[in-house]
Write a structure and sequence with these properties.
2 domains, 8 helices, two-stranded antiparallel ribbon, Rossmann fold, alpha/beta, 8-stranded mixed β-sheet
């Protein structure tokens, strides 16, 4: 492996005494799954609302595939005028109470993953980071009319136990954020990650409610005082637009109702399982838990595909009007 410390450059202005005290490092890298652009929206919102400055810049020419993710360029009349260069940066951000934390944003590296993770590890040690926490979003078969859930993971039980476990053991495509959490955890650092559940029929659109849920989870886990008002208002507007669109189509409304039924059945089953006696079998049937029979409900994929189709058709109809 090439020297990880040659992958980044520290800015001339570094933290002064008292600016960082065992800080939290939040990372929101784009390039992997981020349903509703929740991680990006949350990071952009923090940078728009809170004071910040760059502490370290990564050399993207070493880790970025420009042909896979071509940066936009502007051509004016007879010449090129600009290029929107991607940037991968570590910033010092001050929360609403003046407490400093670190925020790592930018594109997920395409190559040299282990070297990049080692480089972040050097920065974790350099700034004496107390907790590294990643944020992103995943599509789930949940309705937009119910509270958004979070899948929490990491090696800090005090941060993860407050959220229900939604899956057992699964295999997923590798991504840098997960590798960073794995390697830092193996090195004895405190790590965690939050993935908010976005209705999968809305996963391709910006979904402010998901970003707000991530920031609320981040604030609750770290004690950071984070802004929320503009995201809250944007979420209300987005929900109103989605609900208006859904209610105009009886077929769509029926699909949402089915998703609500599945969601509520799952929540009831989880609550009853938590209240079950120690001797109860963990594999009780749905009927014993008072849940609907599986054959009487469409699958989540069927519901999501049908709703996605209806919403797409409605969007096309509105565009042609």
């Amino acid at each position: 492996m090439q020297d990880p410390q040659q992958l980044y450059t520290l800015a001339d202005e570094q933290p002064e005494d008292g600016e960082l005290d065992a800080p939290v490092l939040v990372h929101a890298l784009n390039g992997f799954v981020d349903a509703g652009s929740a991680g990006r929206l949350a990071a952009d919102y923090l940078l728009a609302e809170l004071p910040h400055r760059v502490l370290a810049t990564f050399d993207l020419d070493q880790v970025y595939d420009y042909r896979a993710r071509r940066p936009p360029m502007i051509f004016t009349e007879d010449h090129w005028t600009s290029i929107e260069q991607p940037r991968l940066e570590l910033r010092l951000v001050q929360d609403l109470a003046g407490r400093g934390f670190l925020l790592l944003t930018g594109p997920e590296p395409d190559v040299q993953w282990e070297r990049f993770v080692a480089a972040v590890g050097h920065l974790v040690d350099h700034y004496r980071v107390g907790l590294t926490l990643g944020i992103h979003a995943i599509p789930m078969a949940v309705p937009h009319t119910r509270p958004l859930g979070i899948t929490a993971h990491g090696n800090r039980p005090d941060l993860t136990r407050r959220y229900p476990a939604w899956v057992g053991t699964v295999q997923v495509p590798g991504h840098v954020a997960a590798l960073l959490e794995l390697r830092l955890g193996e090195g004895g650092h405190d790590v965690a990650g939050f993935a908010v559940h976005v209705p999968h029929y809305l996963s391709q659109a910006d979904y402010p409610d998901a970003a707000l849920t991530l920031l609320q989870g981040l604030g609750g886990a770290t004690g950071l005082s984070l802004p929320s008002q503009e995201l809250r208002e944007a979420g209300e507007r987005t929900r109103a637009l989605v609900q208006e669109q859904v209610e105009e189509q009886p077929e769509v409304l029926a699909v949402v109702r089915s998703l609500e039924e599945q969601y509520d059945a799952f929540v009831r089953g989880r609550e009853r399982s938590l209240l079950a006696a120690d001797g109860d079998e963990p594999g009780e049937s749905a009927r014993a838990l008072g849940l609907p029979d599986e054959e009487n409900l469409p699958t989540a994929d069927e519901l999501g595909a049908e709703l996605e189709r209806f919403l797409a058709e409605e969007n096309r109809r509105r565009g042609e009007a």
